């Protein structure tokens, strides 16, 4: 029986080891298994069929020779070239020996010693090179293990470096966060201090303003009352005495009475305006006695919207305007001073109703005056939770040239006698100083005006 099938199995096994080291075993595993099956099939065929000895011999040698020279034409098997180089002489010598022995026995008998020496020499050659190859393979394996150990060490060092960098980043982030918290706390303390100082200033200014307003109130009432009484007396004088005067002085006396009546009417008109300003000053300077408490913003806005509407309807039966509301049902309650916030909303609603009424008077039919109110939760640029209240109307709007002045005390865009100029000023102070929020306006003249109130949730500001 020929040894070539077993040698072929040995060579295939060596190829398997090389391919495994090169990471190519998965690709060639199927073909290596086929090689095993072929070698086993040749061996079984040779054992089972005696008359097929020559065919088995030829197949064994050809299969073995094909396996041995495969590294020279398969790129992935190039690492097995040294083993192939060692076995090719034996594969050729064995093939020649068996061919001569089976088909040319006389020649084989005459040169038996030479042929056997050739086969023996090729076998020694193969064994020697196999030992050398094995030593080299072990050296390569040791080198590979050493390289793997170095790579593993480098990987562990890289992992340690990554962990260290991660810890440094985490620590840096923690320090940064603590710094930001300290800065935010310092900012809040400064803001609270500024609010306290502003509160004291406003309280002192309010007391001074209230004192002045009270002092002005009495002489102002005297002027208003006596101007009204004087007008009534002049009317009685005109009715009772004027007709009894001679004709030559009657006309002049009538003109004088009319002039005095007009003067007193102007005095009374401006006196009432001054009275409204004084009352506004008193209201503006009034110290807030209310405390912050959980407040339902939706209910408060709805209550004061209807209060403003029905109050204006009571004064002017012809007044009418549409109302639209969109309240966030998830708004909940926030800490606020409901009385002060109600004053702000009432003032904004009154202004909006006044604006749409004026536009209705100008445009007449075809225009639908509408005031819209909505609430929702928003986030400030710093990420703080805030409640936003928007009051919008489709009225006359606010001229762009006066936008910077609308929060100034005593500034008003309404005609003389119809506004004190203290409503928006008071509202601005209540929102910004009393609640630590913002009061902004967006407008287009002749189209709309939109006031936006933003109040921090849970913010405790000084009043």
UniProtKB/TrEMBL annotation:
Keywords: Coiled coil, Kinase, Membrane, Phosphoprotein, Transferase, Transmembrane, Transmembrane helix
SUPFAM superfamilies per record: ATPase domain of HSP90 chaperone/DNA topoisomerase II/histidine kinase, Homodimeric domain of signal transducing histidine kinase
Membrane keyword on record: yes
Coiled coil: 161-195
Reactions it catalyzes: ATP + protein L-histidine = ADP + protein N-phospho-L-histidine
Top-rank taxon: Bacteria
Gene Ontology MF term list: phosphorelay sensor kinase activity
Record-linked Pfam families: HATPase_c
Residue ranges of the TM segments: 31-49, 55-74, 115-132
UniProt keyword Repeat, yes or no: no
Limits of the Histidine kinase domain: 211-459
EC number: 2.7.13.3
Enzyme class: transferase
Record's protein name: histidine kinase
Organism field: Mucilaginibacter gossypii
């Amino acid at each position: 029986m020929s040894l070539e099938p077993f040698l072929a199995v040995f060579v295939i096994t060596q190829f398997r080891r090389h391919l495994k080291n090169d990471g190519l075993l998965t690709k060639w595993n199927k073909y290596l298994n086929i090689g095993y099956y072929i070698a086993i099939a040749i061996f079984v065929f040779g054992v089972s069929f005696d008359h097929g000895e020559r065919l088995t011999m030829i197949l064994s040698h050809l299969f073995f020779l094909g396996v041995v020279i495969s590294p020279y034409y398969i790129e992935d098997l190039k690492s097995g070239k040294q083993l192939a180089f060692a076995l090719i002489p034996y594969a050729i010598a064995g093939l020649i020996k068996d061919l001569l022995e089976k088909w040319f026995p006389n020649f084989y008998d005459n040169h038996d010693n030479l042929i056997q020496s050739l086969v023996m020499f090729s076998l020694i050659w193969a064994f020697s090179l196999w030992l050398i190859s094995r030593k080299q393979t072990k050296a390569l394996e040791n080198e590979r293990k050493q390289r793997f150990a170095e790579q593993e060490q480098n990987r562990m060092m890289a992992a340690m470096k990554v962990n260290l960098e991660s810890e440094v980043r985490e620590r840096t982030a923690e320090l940064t966060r603590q710094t930001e918290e300290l800065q935010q706390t310092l900012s809040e303390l400064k803001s609270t201090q500024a609010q306290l100082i502003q509160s004291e200033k406003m309280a002192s200014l309010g007391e001074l303003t209230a004192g002045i307003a009270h002092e002005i109130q009495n002489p102002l009432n005297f002027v208003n009352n006596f101007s009204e009484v004087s007008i009534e007396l002049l009317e009685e004088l005109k009715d009772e005495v004027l007709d009894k005067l001679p004709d030559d002085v009657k006309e002049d006396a009538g003109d004088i009475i009319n002039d005095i009546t007009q003067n007193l009417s102007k005095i009374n008109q401006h006196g009432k305006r001054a009275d409204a300003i004084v009352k506004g000053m008193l209201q503006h300077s009034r110290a807030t006695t209310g405390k912050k408490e959980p407040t339902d913003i939706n209910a408060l806005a709805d209550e004061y919207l209807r209060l403003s509407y029905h109050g204006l309807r009571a004064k002017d039966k012809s007044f009418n305007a549409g109302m639209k509301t969109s309240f966030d049902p998830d708004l909940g309650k926030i800490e606020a001073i409901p009385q002060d916030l109600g004053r702000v909303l009432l003032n904004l609603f009154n202004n909006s109703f006044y604006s749409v009424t004026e536009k209705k008077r100008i445009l007449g039919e075809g225009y639908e005056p509408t005031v819209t109110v909505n609430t929702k939760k928003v986030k400030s640029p710093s990420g703080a939770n805030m409640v936003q209240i928007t009051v919008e109307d489709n009225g006359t709007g606010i001229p762009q040239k006066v936008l910077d002045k609308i929060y100034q005390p005593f500034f008003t865009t309404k005609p003389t006698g119809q506004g004190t100029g203290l409503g928006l000023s008071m509202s601005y102070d209540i929102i910004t100083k009393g609640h630590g929020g913002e009061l902004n306006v967006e407008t287009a003249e002749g189209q709309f005006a939109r006031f936006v109130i933003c109040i921090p949730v849970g913010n405790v500001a000084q009043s």
